[in-house]
Amino acid sequence: MPVNLVGAAGAVFNPAGGVLLQRKVGAERWTVPGGICELGESFEDALRRELLEETSLVVQGAELLDVVSGAQTFKRLDNGHEFYSYTALFRVTHWSGTPLPDGLEGEELRFFAPHALPPLAGPVGRRLAGLLG
Predict the structure, then answer these.
(1) How far apart are CA 109 and CA 132, in angstroms?
(2) pLDDT digits 0-9 by tens, 35-72
(3) Residue 12's beta-bridge partner residues?
(4) In the chain, what are the domains?
(5) pLDDT of residue 17
(6) What are 58's strand-pairing partners?
(7) pLDDT of residue 133
(8) Cα–Cα distance between 110 and 85 in angstroms, integer?
(9) What is the DSSP letter of 128?
């Protein structure tokens, strides 16, 4: 039986208006940094934890852009497990640090101009592209 997974992702913008995207290890497409909430964890706390883990950035302020959910979030893993994801997509308004990939999940981090986004993976990436489009 499929399960529901809840998570948070952050669209981090630099002063020039570029959005930070992550290329996962071994992947060609780019995605929005983020991940799954731990039990009892708020969306905001998951956002801060995941971005610190994946990008080395400290989130100091964020606003909710959208919640990505629905049939398009269904995924079947190679091991046969199935899930639907519900992801709070935030615009990170204030942050500090230097973006550095963790090397475990993310291989590369780069800022892209909103009008020059690479192909984005997953429903969260597609939603962000639609919001910026």
Answers:
(1) 19
(2) 999 999 999 999 999 999 999 999 999 999 999 999 99
(3) 92
(4) 3-132 (3.90.79.10)
(5) 94
(6) 96
(7) 78
(8) 25
(9) H
Compute how many other C-beta atoms are within 10 angstroms of the C-beta atom of residue 99. 20
**Rounded to the nearest 5°, which phi and psi values hold at 37?**
-70, 140
Report the distance separating Cα 118 and Cα 96, nearest Å: 25
DSSP state of 125: H
Give 74-127 pLDDT, tens digit per residue. Answer: 999 999 999 999 999 999 999 999 999 998 889 999 999 999 999 998 999 999
Rounded CA-CA distance 16/19 in Å is: 9
Tell how strand 75-76 and strand 34-36 pair up.
unpaired
101: tokens are 């990939």
